[in-house]
Description:
Elements: E1 2-7, H1 13-27, E2 31-35, H2 40-46, H3 52-61, E3 63-66, H4 80-87, E4 92-98, E5 111-117, E6 127-131, E7 134-137, H5 143-159, E8 164-169, H6 177-189, E9 196-201, H7 202-211, E10 218-221, H8 223-237, E11 244-248, E12 254-258, H9 275-287, H10 291-307, H11 321-331
Parallel strand pairs: 1-2, 1-3, 3-12, 5-10, 8-9, 8-10
Antiparallel strand pairs: 4-5, 4-11, 6-7, 11-12
Helix pairs in contact: 1-9, 1-11, 5-6, 7-8, 9-10, 10-11
Amino acid sequence: MYKITLIPGDxxxxxxxxxxxxxxxxxxxxxxxxxxxAGAEMVVKHxxxxxxxxxxxxxxxxxxxxxxxxxxxxxxxxxxxxxxRKRLNLxxxxxxxxxxxxxxxxxxxxxxxxxxxxxxxxxxGLEHIVVPGVVESLxxxxxxxxxxxxxxxxxxxxxxxxxxxxxxxxxxxxxxxDGLFLDCVRKVSRDYPEIQYEEMIVDNTCMQLVLRPxxxxxxxxxxxxxxxxxxxxxxxxxxLGLTGSANVGEAGLAMFEAVHGSAPDIAGRNLANPVxxxxxxxxxxxxxxxVPAAEKIQSAVEQVFLEGKTLxxxxxxTASTTEITDAxxxxx
Length: 332
Ligand code: NAI
């Protein structure tokens, strides 16, 4: 029996995490969920988006499954998501995007993994008004974090039998910051002679991803580029409803969540696609070494897509969150 922290989040969060909990239960893996809350509601009650009990719970249990949490745009409190990743030092954000056979999307040959640095860059939250009308926003890049994420990407490639790592950057403009990132990853690459290494400027990368996504394998990048490129990769395989992710730190700490946000436009209507958070659970089960259960769930999702009868609206179908979850469970 595992004890795992569950943060349902807001918007579609509770609906999609409920679906994942049901699927994990049906896979036969026994979990006692420790439910804790983070987000806007907590600001009213506790004065912070992430109360201490959330950190304590994750540190105690080591592993968390999390629904999306909304962040106000352009004003208000700092992102609970960024706070969680930073304070728990979950420095690597792993976001795979893979085409599903049978599922209609723009491409059928995508299999990329975005490894996003999760602890610094323009997400440092260091912004100030210099004089009215002029804002300075600080991009922090350190040798330690760049080397650490470079190593993570190459180790990931080695462990999962991947052939190539692409470092994505804008060092032609940010010569110091992105230059440092490249120097660090390049140095790391020398320890992995069996893995091909290449560097690509971020704007060209976007164009190449749309034109020929099959050329990419593992991609490693700073925080902001990773945030944007991973949504792009979700779009390549059929949308945000399909991509899970892991936030991994040191000492066995990890938090699993969908790439997507709280989707307020469809929240509370049983319309959300739960597959992204279900695939995040698959990553979580692999992390826990529950490989047969992870593979069973992955294959159940693939079967549902191959049949093509029970698809949510984002995938061109009419099924509800509950109906697609039931279909996945039926295949278990
Ligand atoms: P979003 O990812 O919530 O939604 C973008 C579009 O994709 C919307 O049209 C939405 O309906 C659709 N979508 C997303 N997930 C879906 C799913 N599972 N099934 C079907 N359709 C889905 O991004 P948006 O609108 O930019 O952000 C909304 C809120 O989410 C913001 O407050 C943002 O800060 C927060 N957010 C939280 C994240 C997290 O908790 N890790 C990540 C990204 C955004």
